[in-house]
Amino acid sequence: MIEVLFFAQVRERLDCASLTVALPESGLDLDALQAQLIAEHGADWGDVLGQDNIIRAVNQTVAQGNPALRDGDEVAFYPPVTGG
Amino acid sequence: MSEPRLSVRVQVEDFDPGALQDSLLAGAAGEGAVATFTGYVRRSNEGENIASMRLEHYPGMTEKSIAGIMAEAAGRWPLLAAAVVHRVGLLVPGERIVWVGVSSAHREAAFSACEFVMDYLKTSAPFWKKEVGPGGERWVSARASDDARAGRW
Which residues of B touch A57 (CB under 8 A)? Predict the structure, then answer.
């Protein structure tokens, strides 16, 4: 299983803080996971997860490129950060 | 030189900058300089008064991200210790939000590393602010000027 987390505006707009996705035997990369979430949940999710400035993290590190996912990975989608 | 002492705390409670500065020095030898930064909740943002704000974060990644920034700073400057405290939850104008402290033998490293940690924290640590004002609630937008500051390093 892959745990998927959403934060801030992304969480509010999706009305979802987290969900789990089964890892298919054929494997899954980050782009494919994102496409699968949009396909399963519809256009609203496409609007939110398809934003240019969305940040993707895998195992609590910002993802570079399109990494392959492994069982037990934690993936997060969130907007640009505004701390400090 | 021994490894610098690095610490990160994310907490709801307020903090005491003086006590934090003292704790930065405790047990270490050779400091000639401590540089600190304290950030506060502003009373207005983009022309709108702020009644309160709520700070959200990504538990686990926040600490990992800030620890990584401090380790990067320790690789660039000869630090003796560095610490970050960042508050989350409900905050009102005038309250402290964030504290960064760095100790080193000399001021240049302390000043530079403190600013570096703060600049990277603002642009990469996963915190989000939602302000409450006369117009209701709104998420704070990321600033291009913050990216530009972090990009200088």
Answer: 58, 61, 126
In terms of residue numbers, what domain contains A12?
2-78
Residues in A closer than 8 angstroms to B125, CB to CB, are: 81, 83-84
Provide ipTM, 2 decimals: 0.95
Pick among B9, B58, B118 to test the A interface (most A CBs inside 10 A): B58
Q: What confidence tens digit (pLDDT) does each residue in A9-68 have?
A: 999 999 999 999 999 999 999 999 999 999 999 999 999 999 999 999 999 999 999 999
Residues 6+ away with beta carbon under 8 Å from B39 = A84, B96, B97, B98, B99, B118
Structural domains of chain B sorted by starting position, each given as residue range(s) with its CATH number in brackets: 5-151 (3.90.1170.40)
Which stretch of DSSP H or E encloses residue B121?
helix B107-124
B93-107: pLDDT as tens digits: 999 999 999 999 999
Nearest CA in chain B to A8: B128
